Task: structure prediction
Amino acid sequence: MEQDKLLQLLTKVRGGEVTPEEAVLELKIAPFEDLGYAKVDLHRGIRGGVSEVVYGAGKTTEQVVGILESMRQKGVENILVTRISKETAERIGERMAFEYHEVPKLGVAARDEREMVGKVVVASAGTSDMAVCEEAALTAEILGNKVVRLYDVGVAGLHRLLSHQKTLMTARVVIAVAGMEGALASVVGGLVDCPVIAVPTSVGYGANFGGLSALLSMLNSCASGVSVVNIDNGFGAGFLANRINRMDGLAG
Amino acid sequence: MEQDKLLQLLTKVRGGEVTPEEAVLELKIAPFEDLGYAKVDLHRGIRGGVSEVVYGAGKTTEQVVGILESMRQKGVENILVTRISKETAERIGERMAFEYHEVPKLGVAARDEREMVGKVVVASAGTSDMAVCEEAALTAEILGNKVVRLYDVGVAGLHRLLSHQKTLMTARVVIAVAGMEGALASVVGGLVDCPVIAVPTSVGYGANFGGLSALLSMLNSCASGVSVVNIDNGFGAGFLANRINRMDGLAG
Amino acid sequence: MEQDKLLQLLTKVRGGEVTPEEAVLELKIAPFEDLGYAKVDLHRGIRGGVSEVVYGAGKTTEQVVGILESMRQKGVENILVTRISKETAERIGERMAFEYHEVPKLGVAARDEREMVGKVVVASAGTSDMAVCEEAALTAEILGNKVVRLYDVGVAGLHRLLSHQKTLMTARVVIAVAGMEGALASVVGGLVDCPVIAVPTSVGYGANFGGLSALLSMLNSCASGVSVVNIDNGFGAGFLANRINRMDGLAG
Amino acid sequence: MEQDKLLQLLTKVRGGEVTPEEAVLELKIAPFEDLGYAKVDLHRGIRGGVSEVVYGAGKTTEQVVGILESMRQKGVENILVTRISKETAERIGERMAFEYHEVPKLGVAARDEREMVGKVVVASAGTSDMAVCEEAALTAEILGNKVVRLYDVGVAGLHRLLSHQKTLMTARVVIAVAGMEGALASVVGGLVDCPVIAVPTSVGYGANFGGLSALLSMLNSCASGVSVVNIDNGFGAGFLANRINRMDGLAG
Amino acid sequence: MEQDKLLQLLTKVRGGEVTPEEAVLELKIAPFEDLGYAKVDLHRGIRGGVSEVVYGAGKTTEQVVGILESMRQKGVENILVTRISKETAERIGERMAFEYHEVPKLGVAARDEREMVGKVVVASAGTSDMAVCEEAALTAEILGNKVVRLYDVGVAGLHRLLSHQKTLMTARVVIAVAGMEGALASVVGGLVDCPVIAVPTSVGYGANFGGLSALLSMLNSCASGVSVVNIDNGFGAGFLANRINRMDGLAG
Amino acid sequence: MEQDKLLQLLTKVRGGEVTPEEAVLELKIAPFEDLGYAKVDLHRGIRGGVSEVVYGAGKTTEQVVGILESMRQKGVENILVTRISKETAERIGERMAFEYHEVPKLGVAARDEREMVGKVVVASAGTSDMAVCEEAALTAEILGNKVVRLYDVGVAGLHRLLSHQKTLMTARVVIAVAGMEGALASVVGGLVDCPVIAVPTSVGYGANFGGLSALLSMLNSCASGVSVVNIDNGFGAGFLANRINRMDGLAG
Amino acid sequence: MEQDKLLQLLTKVRGGEVTPEEAVLELKIAPFEDLGYAKVDLHRGIRGGVSEVVYGAGKTTEQVVGILESMRQKGVENILVTRISKETAERIGERMAFEYHEVPKLGVAARDEREMVGKVVVASAGTSDMAVCEEAALTAEILGNKVVRLYDVGVAGLHRLLSHQKTLMTARVVIAVAGMEGALASVVGGLVDCPVIAVPTSVGYGANFGGLSALLSMLNSCASGVSVVNIDNGFGAGFLANRINRMDGLAG
Amino acid sequence: MEQDKLLQLLTKVRGGEVTPEEAVLELKIAPFEDLGYAKVDLHRGIRGGVSEVVYGAGKTTEQVVGILESMRQKGVENILVTRISKETAERIGERMAFEYHEVPKLGVAARDEREMVGKVVVASAGTSDMAVCEEAALTAEILGNKVVRLYDVGVAGLHRLLSHQKTLMTARVVIAVAGMEGALASVVGGLVDCPVIAVPTSVGYGANFGGLSALLSMLNSCASGVSVVNIDNGFGAGFLANRINRMDGLAG
Result:
């Protein structure tokens, strides 16, 4: 039941047109969700600084364009669109301001100006993990987080990672992206004191079984403070990093 | 190279006993780690409010007691000990102040007085998930976090969960614990704006395959802002929740 | 033994041409199935309102066309053909009346006029599950069931689902279609009192392992009254929904 | 918000003590679920003939007894308790009327007198599936369904199954219980025109992988009209069979 | 329909009491299986030399004893009973002549005197596979086959196997039993020209995953002429070996 | 050591040119295999009636043609070539007499005239299993076995299978080919007294996991006398059927 | 054919008692393996310094004692016995000199005096991996290798590992033992230039799936020079380390 | 901290500009790794004879060319590039001397002249494993090892393998490459006394599950002295073989 309809109903109760008993009945079966819907959306926009997100995979170009146009008409800004092809991006670009990144297949419509805050570090094991890394990094940036990229710092050449220890230790959140054996998450988890979001990737072959090796490795991390998102889910890591990075202080 | 040895070396450089070139050589091969060790520990204690943790599984009672006594002698307080039997707990209790919780098989030695801050909500799908929930909740409490328990709020009876919506929406972190189909994480993830740590449990039978069903379910959550720890890893969730809950505000 | 041959045999028994003992012998080895075949078919047509179904996958266009022509010659109507390409559909359309639906790759030859009865609700978690949903919905419709579609009501935005609670609660059967974590089945199962048929889909990526995550999630549903069909098996769900929707009342 | 509190609020609106606007505010945040809870329960009791169910696994004897006593005090009858030991059953028996079945480890407290309706056939492949079969059969019986048991009719001796064809063909629902290769579900599915609920069991060894073989077999059944519940989930099958068996006729 | 009832029916047809049309109707729904049942059993006894087999796992001692007594009363001899404990065997022994073998947990009631024919070779990779081997070997022997045992001839010490090449090459059937990597089946398959029945065992640890490694290895054997039975299924291999060994010559 | 070289060596021993001790030394390290190779081949040709087989998958057209030409030069006839494309087949056809079957992608070079003996029945669950069935059937035929094809006799329509019971019961070997739930093997296994070779196929979708469902189903068959080959391995089944069908009688 | 029998045969050829042609025939079918057996054994003893090994798991105490006594009578020394209980060890100790290690359940009979050579480093991630580590370390020591133990140097506390960098870099072989995420192998592999043998252990819980996580992690190691043995196979690692450590130099 | 910066710091300490205490502080946080990097690289070049390796998979042609040009400018020779297409190889060839091998998709830039030492045997089960074999063999050759290829010596035709026993027994390292059932590793492991590196390949179909069958088989090898690398990881095997082959003698 939407807010104005509820108000109408209650006004009728006050006016005696509807008895309290009748109102109880109507309220019991009324769809409370529309209230919830509006509330949640506003709340989200205000508290989390998160704009709308459109998951492009499995949607036609027409569907994606349609959703974006509808959002734009309602004045929504900074709409993140993930996993879309260059062609879809170009089609969107014909209708509205659209910034597209080809490697992670991710774009943002009507990007707004917002202050970049905090520090999210995206560390990756190898160059082949780039697409997932960039999905994470750009998601975080579009949502207004300062991002530092530490790419190709896999554990087989530990010096590469250790040379950036200072950067890691001053991060508010670290996103550790790795395929193959996924050991990066544990090593980073042992070095830092902030939350670590581990992203297993499907990079590798043979017994990596499409990312299973990195996934299991990260879930079993002997380092505390590490949690894991789905294989190749750069967006999810970037989104969660934004939530954590923007945490208020306890006193505030 | 430990700090005092490093100081000796550098004093010798100043005194001319050792040339800078010789010192470079020595430093190159010096075990830098001992410095790192001390630093990390202090840092951890100061910043994260995290005391030492002893993982009891796979250790003999003798080993656990030995480690704890050694720590106590160095004055360490608030030492969390996970996954130990009642017998081991009693043996520890004969030597030092030890608080033991039987359901999650978890104890704390020399628990300190610390201010309880923030709000961590631990929500669980069913009563059978109790042991994992309590491991999470007590870990968070021992590390100094206020914890609200919402148990038995599984999604098959949605009203149970929705009646606590206010509690959920004012949490700084939510730990969602569920076995079987693990749907709780997605539903909670859709209701709140704070980070959600999902803990799959091995509760269930048949095609739950020891927690695999809940694990996969949570990793594939359609709700953003959810990350996952290992099956039954209540400790890990409580530890991470502490890290997130204690985040400084961006301005601070 | 076909019915007329059996009649011949028994007439011979009556006429004394064949002794009962000889007939026993012949009947023992006679292929009883052809009788069964005819019987079952008639029975099916009368009781279940189910026409013939041709599973198109793995059959050549020639084979599908051949089977349909043979059926049409015998006067069969309302023949459902699943999982065929647009090309095959066009080839069929050149020979007989054929209605084709591109999204679920499903068609119906010689669709009959039949009363649409009951109420089957098809609820889906996301737009990407559309093809499976439509396979279920159209199958149910072609078999003569009224279908209500509730698409994109995934549990991460619970209000979307809850706003349709009335529709759900008045359904005779609900088909819950979901990929990723498949939580929709449990939540719907907790809301309704009618049978719920859960259809896991292969929609998702990474640790969804081709639909395994949704499948396991649905099999482990904590809600009672939920059963599961194969991954992406929209047809099976629609077919079963028809059977349940058309149940006679207990009194007759 | 419970019903009487809602009535109080609305009476205050009518009396002018509370403005409609204030009531809107209160209703927005009010826990709507308690209404839902009451409603759902009543609805369930009236429409589905289903009493309360207590899942005993993972609960202590104390917890089970506590829940039952609380329910009995509220006058609830016919409470099904699944997966409890003989000891727990005896403890319950000391407090209230309790009927216990040892093979399926299932009991019923305060069983009521109800008319047994319809026909649910429980067919099983072998004697080793007995516990799961009885969990299904007794669940259905306690909920008020006439049950016919066809045990040990596995497909390796087809004549055993076929000799009961008439029983099968007059069922309103068939529950097919099988371990090992689980072929019973497909064969039964091909023989009947009513819904078939397949229950894979963990009976077998080696490559049955705890019931996986029967589960996959049943999910891939080439027979239409078959759906599947969790491995060894006799209760779920009996519960769902009750729902289907008690379907009203379309005209009614 | 049993044979005498069928005769009665046909006599009535001859006598004019029942019309052929009525008889057709009755025969259509008559349970044909009981005829089949008798026939199959006799046939089996005559052609395959196979007596009854009772699978003991999952049956109570009472059930096993009951079945055996019932069979004995009907004069059945040479009844194989698999997977029973020593206790059950002793209980059976109190009632009838019973020969029990403790290692494979297999016994035979009322063993008959029969000519031992052909040659079945049972080859095993290691001593730990003994129980499965003996289940296979004794099954074959009880069914009347000459068995040669080649134990501990694993491929890591090829000379052990090759020294028995002559024995292998004169076998009519070879049963190759192996756990761990299961390579024995391929090597034996390459040496002989007769059918090879491969039995993977659960012997091993770690990545043998309960026999999966040997199972997959044997299914993927590069040697032709090899087929596989379930993990640890010695009985199945012995039973099948009997069937193959007793094949008539093509001319006969 | 090839036969003529061995003869030379032994002649030298007789002639005193080489002492027995020296010969022992030479024989110890001599490659005995070339003898073995020749022997095995002859033996195979004589006893099993099996010609050479070339597994085409993963070989270039050049390699396949090369192998065949080399064999033809040595006078080998009836060479079976499996899993080759039409193109490769045409290339072979330019060089030698070659009969190609497109559905199973199988051909035979220089097919000989041989008496067709025995009876191998190839039964399949559905039309989609055709390619695997034909690989099995043609392999058996090319090796000289009479083959009866019973296609599309899946268990969901039991009458189709039962109408061919006589054909099945007079077979010397049955090859049961099925995808999806693979129940055909168990049902056939229960009907016949001869060895049954089960071939799981990858036909199906979703939870068939590339043939795993049928494979596990067949391995767990409750019918005795059934053994299994690799998924889609029609050749292996045909080859083994030939071995079994051609078994000599025990007396002969 | 054993050596003396071969000599007899060849002497008969020289003496003219047997023609070369007859000898060729006999040699073709002679079991060459017994020669091979003796040769291999001697060779092994001389070159690899490896004594006999008895794998105790799955053998009865009687069998183990029997094998050892037989070996001792032939004068074999330094016999390694793996995976035996303390009871078995005590029983052996009553018959012969026997050194038993309880943690890895491993013993050595008639241990010889041999020079300890080279350097094998056994590094482990945690204290819970101790049993596997000691199986590896003691195996290597008993075979005559100097072993350095670096225990509890898991990657979550990198300083612990790095402080032993010098020890690692001077090893000839490193055995890296780790459960959980198994990252140790990759990190060690990146630090050293010698062969690394990775041993995954089953230590952990939940998604470690009995060692699968560490196994996959190690197989997918991004570090070159790492190979893997079975889960918990400390013996295999120690045995292989011995082979590598004892490699001759290329010039030698 | 790079070496010159360290020297500057220490010079300042000597000059009194920086106190030892200040230097301690700076050194604690200084990135020590750049030193380490240089050291490790030199060390590697000197001791292991290993040049740089570029893993081509997942890198664009531009990235591969860029890396190679940068290396060449620093004078690096003998750079191995794995898993690149012919097109990429041709592009590289336009810029620098580049030797490309099409079957294993592997090339070497600026190949140097180096003495070929030792003996590495690469044995493979079948011709289809060729690409993986050649990746292993060429990797070993480019790194300066003499390689003997024994292809198509699968265990189903044991004579092929045994005829090369001498070659095998004189190897310093054997690389055993096999798909399907992977039995080659165990058989070879039983024949030789040197380290065996097993490479499972994805060659096969059906229940080989992309190489899983060979992988598990090899991990469970009953032969000691065998270790395993990732599925299809020919490079890893060749690289490790180089390390082992080049081991110094113990005295040296």
Remarks:
- Chain D touches chain C at residues 43-44, 47-48, 53, 117-118, 169, 172, 193-195, 197, 215, 219-220, 224-231, 235-237, 239-240, 243-252 (CB under 8 Å).
- Residues 28-49 of chain D have pLDDT under 50 and may be disordered.
